[in-house]
Structures are given as structure tokens and as C-alpha cells.
Specification:
about 450 residues, alpha+beta, 15 strands, disordered N terminus
Amino acid sequence: MIDFHKQKLALADLTDLNWLKQRFFVYPDQRIKVKTGEVIIRQEEVNEKMYFMESGSTSGYFKPEEGEEFKVFSTGTNMMVGLYSFFSHDHRSYTTVKADEDTVVLYVSRDQLPEKNSPEYGLFLEHILPVIVNEIYLRQMLMINSVSEKESVLKKLMESEKMATLGQLAAGLAHELNNAASVIQSKAEWITEHMKDYMEQKDSKGLYPYFLRSLEKGQTKSSVEVRTRKEKIKELIGVQENAAKKLAKMNLTDEELMMINQKADSGIIDRLGNYWEAGLALHDINIAASHTTHVVQSIKELGAANRREHQNFSLLSSIEKAHSLLTNQLKHIETSIEVHEDIKINGKEGDFIQVWVNLIKNAAEVLNTKQPQSPQIIIEASKKGSLLHVSIKDNGGGIEESEQSKIFQPSYTTKVSGLSFGLGLGLSIVQKILSSYEGQIQLTCQDEWTIFSIQLPKQ
């Protein structure tokens, strides 16, 4: 905004206002007191007076033939109004000048000016021209401010309309997908129950409990843990690389390994692996179906009152479910989940799965694109004071500093194609979900590491 006080000082530097005031604005009968809101000059009316502001303030308003009246300029003490109409050819004012507060003005009429060819007229021009230049400058600055503000408002309005349109499209899409998602979830549950009966009936080697374990727990070992466990299994029971890797994924105890190894059945590890993988596949299908239903339901609830109840759930479990949904993207990435199983969150588990999926997926996409020598994602959580801290970091090379401040803006993306790539909504949705739980998310980059740090009130 324009600092009129500073501008008034600038005007004082340009000209000797006292000369003008003492020469022309000295007549008591030409001193007017104007109440707040009263009009001094009216738009389109003839004005042959020049006003000097002794005290108070005024503003000039222009009203177009169609549209609302808007402010063109403002004046304060020791400033002048009526300059344009006073000097113009037809002396008509292009604005209506009103008092912003109780104001005192002094005026001079055109017929009181010196003769045009007189030396005193030259002095008058010498003193009034800087005043006119300053007034033009002030009004240009006010107009620039006004245009800048309108552009800012217009930009926000366009963004709002864009998001509203996107919301309508998303809601329409959610409506169409809702039935399909519900069918997928219910049929996944039906298949799971029938597969349990089928696998139990077909089992003659005592492998059914391992099917149930993977069905209920899913893949709980990180890639680092699997690799470490594989080497120990090779030493413990002397099996080959592939067999050791299968067994390492199953989270078996040493006693269970020894028992399996003692069975006189050369194909027992392959069959055990099949039972385990079948349970794991059904586990992931159920999570994917449940998450799809949650996302569709969340989109439908946009703008609606939140009616679903919060529940306590395991932070580790929600991260593992998100991990299960991203198995393919994480196939070649070493993922480490260092989260204590006792940490609980009160809320909707689906919301947080959505948060972890977005953050882990982004990290995986960066790593799969840039392909560093040893791609890693590390997920950690800890309680500090009244806060729960969760961090997800990847060694994909960091994010350019110029992009870091924009990364949470809706519609901002560094990706170029694809449905989930082009919308640029993932991180803004993450931020919105966390804000609804009074949480925060921050981005930092250290060397090759990109770190998203989340803080949540401890519950």
C-alpha cells in the first residue's frame, strides 16, 4: 500500500507548499469544514476550485456507467484535490471526492489566479507543477496496488474454481466407482473365507497354519531383515539360496525351520512357500480392496460432515498395509521400517494408510526413476514429549531448493504424465489429512536424502 505520509514528505521536498498556502489559501471565507462522508467534488460536474487539505483526509471515487464505484486516490493533510478538473479544458471532475473523516479544506478559484503573462503566474506554475506531478505519481501507485490486489484475488479465485471443478469430477468418479469398489471388497472377503476352508481341507502336511499366518499378518519382514535372515537360514539348515529366501520371508522361528527341515519331503519348502504366498496374496488383495473403498468413500465425503468414528490402531500395522499396497514399486528398493509395534494412533486407519501410501509411493517413484546405486527408504517413528514423530526418507538425490516451497501446493507436480502423476494432489491431500488431526509435515533435504517429517499430537 502507498505510504501517504512518506509521499507528503517527498512533496515537501519538491516544492515550497507554504508559498502556495500563504499566497492562495488564506481567505477565511474560503475555508470549509466537511463532515465525514460529505461530497466536496462530484463526478462529471464542473469544478473551478483547487482545494488544499488543512486537516483530515479525503478519497476520490470513480463510478463507471455499468459497475460499482471504486476508489481512485486518497489524500491527507497538506495535500490537494481538484487539480485535474481545475486545469482541464472543460473543468469537469472525473471522480467524486468525499471526506473520509471530518475535514477542513481551503480553496482558491480560477478567477483568483494571477494573470497568465504576469511574473507571479510564472511563480505559481513553478510551485504547482511539482504538486501535479506528485499527485499523478500517487494515483498511478494506487492504481498499481489496486491492479496487483485484483490479480492476486483473481488468481486465488481461478485456483478455487479449478479445485471446485476437480472436486466435482472426483465426486462423480467416486460415485461411479463406489459400487464397483464395494463389490470388489465383498467378493475379496468371500473368496478369502472359502479359500481358508479349501486350503485346510487340502492340507495333509501341516502347512495350513502358515497360510493363516501370512493371511492375517502379511509380509512383516523388511527387505533388510529378509536378506539378513536368509544368510542365517543357509547356515542353520544348509538350504540353497532360493529356498532360504522363501523361508526368510515367512518369519519362521528356528524351531519351525528345524522341524520343516526334518520332514522327509523334498518338495516341502516349495509347498510351504505356495501356502505362504497364497495367504499373502489374499492379505494384500483384502487390504487393497479395503483401501480402495476408503479412498472412494473419502472422496464422496469431501465437503460433507465427518460422520465416521475414530478408533485406536497400530501405526506399524498401517505402515505395513501401505507397504503391501506398493509391493511392485518397492521390489528393487531396500525398505526399512523402524517403528515400535506398541505405538497407537487414534483416528481413521484408512486416512493414515493414504498418507503413508502417498509418501512411500513418491519416494519409490523417485528411486525407480533415478536408480541410485543402493536405493533405500527408511521409515522411523518415535515419541518425544507430547508429540509423535514419523519420518519417511529416501536417498533419491533430494529436491531442488526452488521446488521445496511449492511441493505441498495443490496441482503442483514435478511429474509429467500419467493419471496419478499429473494431478499434483498427493502431497496436498497428505497435508490436508494431517491438518485434520492437528498434525504437521515438513520437507528437508540432506545430501542425497529427502526427508518428510511428520508431527502428530501424542494420543
